[in-house]
């Protein structure tokens, strides 16, 4: 038993049988189960009321596909956080306020995103709401400290403060949109979000004073995994505005912590972990600007990484797995950059790979059963 405890401590688990680890585990399981089970009734209701994306030249679906998956993801995430907080309340008032700011910003983005999915909103209005959500983090102390970023000069306080505000808004709004833009092939965003959440969770678990971040990431990882059960190709539902929930929350949580060091000093780790959506958005925006498009975020095309990979593989499943692999390799690089022990990195990669295989296999099995039932009904 002592050996098991020692082994767990090497993985960042201070007490294998303590309330802290139980809270994280239960948060993850609660989010996964609620999202997994909540999606079918949400899908049925969405089809009845017309909450669906119609087929077009940019989409892979050939029939109306419900786009309300984000509601189930959000429900699983929030309920799991309530469960985790009940088991292990964070007594530091400042951190509690920051967590509430993250949840409030995520709720605002979910609400506006859902309205946009169903009725359509202008890109400028959506950007304004994203800026407001980023400012909500800033006024509650979640920011990147420019003077703490390695290899950059230390500047005057006022100049550094302005640059810190700019970088924080760019980080939050940029990653929010990056995850949204990556959502083009079944399973890609859900898998990338699960990988990033799990890797950041393990990274945060190495520090004793990042319990709040660990709980939030456990809920986010669980809801992403539960959603993937229904979204791996062929998808029965898409997340719609759920991609902004993943992007915003990952960006915000990467700034959360009570360590004496600045969040900016450790920005390299989340940059590496979330390199895939960042690189995708960068190459898309640069390419559109080069073609003379003045508003690159408002002119969709097929130049995203998932479109390029899909053109080569010719298969949505292989495309998802290929991009998951890239995201996992980026996550492994991020963990090594943080100085996490190789055994911990290996076990994290095995857990992530095994979890993704499990939900993908369950989705394929369900699709085979559905197809067999359809053939029997025709006969």
From TrEMBL:
Entry's Gene Ontology molecular function annotations: metal ion binding; phosphotransferase activity, for other substituted phosphate groups
Q: Which cofactor does it need?
A: Mg(2+)
The residues listed in the UniProt record as binding Mg(2+), with positions renumbered to this chain, are 180
> What is the protein's given name?
Undecaprenyl/decaprenyl-phosphate alpha-N-acetylglucosaminyl 1-phosphate transferase
Which InterPro entries does this one have?
Glycosyl_transferase_4
Does Mitochondrion appear among the keywords?
A: no
GO terms under biological process = cell wall macromolecule biosynthetic process; cell wall organization; lipopolysaccharide biosynthetic process
Chief location: membrane
Sequence intervals crossing the membrane: 21-39, 68-87, 99-115, 121-139, 151-173, 185-204, 211-228, 321-337, 343-360
Query: Mind telling me which GO cellular component terms the entry cites?
Result: plasma membrane
State its location(s).
Cell membrane
Record keywords: Magnesium included? yes
Q: Which UniProt keywords apply?
A: Cell membrane, Magnesium, Membrane, Metal-binding, Transferase, Transmembrane, Transmembrane helix
Write down the superkingdom of origin.
Bacteria
Instruction: List, alphabetically, the Pfam families matched.
Output: Glycos_transf_4
Q: How does it sit in the membrane?
A: Multi-pass membrane protein
């Amino acid at each position: 038993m002592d050996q098991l405890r020692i082994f767990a401590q090497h993985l960042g688990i201070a007490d294998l049988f303590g309330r802290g680890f139980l809270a994280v585990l239960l948060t993850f399981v609660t989010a996964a189960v609620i999202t997994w089970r909540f999606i079918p009734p949400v899908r049925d209701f969405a089809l009845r009321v017309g909450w669906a994306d119609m087929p077009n030249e940019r989409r892979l679906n050939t029939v109306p596909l419900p786009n309300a998956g984000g509601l189930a993801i959000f429900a699983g995430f929030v309920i799991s956080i309530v469960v985790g907080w009940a088991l292990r309340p964070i007594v530091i008032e400042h951190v509690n306020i920051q967590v509430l700011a993250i949840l409030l910003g995520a709720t605002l983005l979910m609400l506006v995103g859902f309205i946009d999915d169903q009725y359509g909103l202008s890109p400028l209005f959506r950007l304004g709401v994203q800026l407001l959500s980023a400012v909500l983090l800033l006024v509650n102390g979640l920011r990147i400290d420019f003077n703490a970023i390695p290899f950059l000069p230390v500047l005057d306080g006022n100049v550094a403060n302005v640059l810190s505000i700019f970088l924080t808004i760019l980080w939050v709004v940029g990653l929010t949109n990056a995850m949204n833009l990556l959502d083009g092939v079944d399973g890609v965003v859900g898998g990338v979000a699960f990988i990033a959440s799990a890797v950041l969770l393990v990274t945060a678990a190495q520090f004793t004073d990042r319990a709040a971040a660990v709980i939030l990431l456990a809920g986010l990882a669980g809801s992403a995994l539960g959603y993937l059960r229904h979204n791996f190709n062929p998808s029965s539902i898409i997340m719609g505005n759920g991609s902004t929930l993943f992007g915003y929350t990952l960006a915000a949580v990467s700034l959360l912590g009570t360590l004496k060091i600045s969040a900016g000093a450790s920005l390299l780790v989340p940059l590496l972990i979330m390199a895939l959506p960042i690189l995708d958005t960068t190459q898309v925006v640069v390419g559109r600007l080069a073609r003379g498009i003045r508003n690159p975020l408002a002119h969709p095309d097929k130049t995203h990484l998932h479109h390029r990979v899909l053109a080569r593989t010719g298969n949505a499943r292989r495309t998802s797995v290929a991009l998951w692999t890239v995201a996992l390799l980026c996550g492994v690089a991020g963990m090594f950059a943080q100085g996490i022990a190789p055994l911990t990195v290996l076990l994290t990669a095995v857990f992530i790979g095994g979890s993704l295989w499990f939900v993908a296999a369950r989705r394929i099995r369900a699709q085979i059963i559905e197809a067999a039932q359809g053939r029997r009904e025709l006969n």
